[in-house]
């Protein structure tokens, strides 16, 4: 059930103007040269609705950045690697990329592992939240920045990676053109994201199922409340071509809602996705649905229906996960 406001300040946190609770109890490793000196407001976090959020560009991204969100993103990272058979990407970037950027890096798992895979490459992770770990490979750095702003970090990247950004980017065309300008000739971009269209191959998913209700609502909330297009991947291959990229390719995997598949690998992926999805739904119920104006009873009923549906093996539902990669022309 959603909480309609911040509760009493936990120990070590201070009450900010407007009732928000501010803390800077997480010391990330970030590159300060891009900003001169990081201000305390960039390093701080705010506590609302019982969850922790970023303060830099406050409200720009409505999802939390606390320990529960770390668990969700970490499990999602593991799950998506399993989907790709242990790989981190599908783009043909070769064996010796020198500059890689991870946009919307979150807690930094992908950037760190790519840095370990390519120790001679410079890997930059960019996010609104300073939530990345302190101990990282020497060739990896993290920047606190809004990826839709004018870039202050270096250009000439061999590879730009973005994962699950539909709920954080307002102008995909502007961002893609910025990436295009900052890629080396012949460099690659790869976007990995879900399409919010639950489906089943055997017609066991009815049109009035809670999965449909949740994603229809989420599409509306993200669009009207925050200006995000959750369905952008559905036209992304064509869009990338219109923005100047070539050799556009795509692949779609289907993430099972729960452990209904008979195949052991798919069943394991489905078990992971059930937990990832449930954590995401809880985060949506905590803040975005509340800010959209839903009452607590509506949110409670939807969450109850989702939890029951996730353990119903009679419904063989899945969600499309798109991998789309494209190249900047070599000349």
UniProtKB/TrEMBL annotation:
UniProt feature, compositional bias: Basic and acidic residues: 14-23
CDD domains: AdoMet_MTases
Keywords, sorted A to Z: Methyltransferase, Transferase
Region (Disordered): 1-34
Biological process according to GO: methylation
Cleaved signal peptide residues: none
Cross-referenced InterPro entries: SAM-dependent_MTases_sf (IPR029063)
Molecular function terms from GO: methyltransferase activity
Xref: Pfam families: Methyltransf_23
Entry-linked PANTHER family: 2-METHOXY-6-POLYPRENYL-1,4-BENZOQUINOL METHYLASE, MITOCHONDRIAL, METHYLTRANSFERASE
Similarity annotation: Belongs to the methyltransferase superfamily. LaeA methyltransferase family.
Protein name, UniProt field: S-adenosyl-L-methionine-dependent methyltransferase
Species assigned in the record: Lasiosphaeria hispida
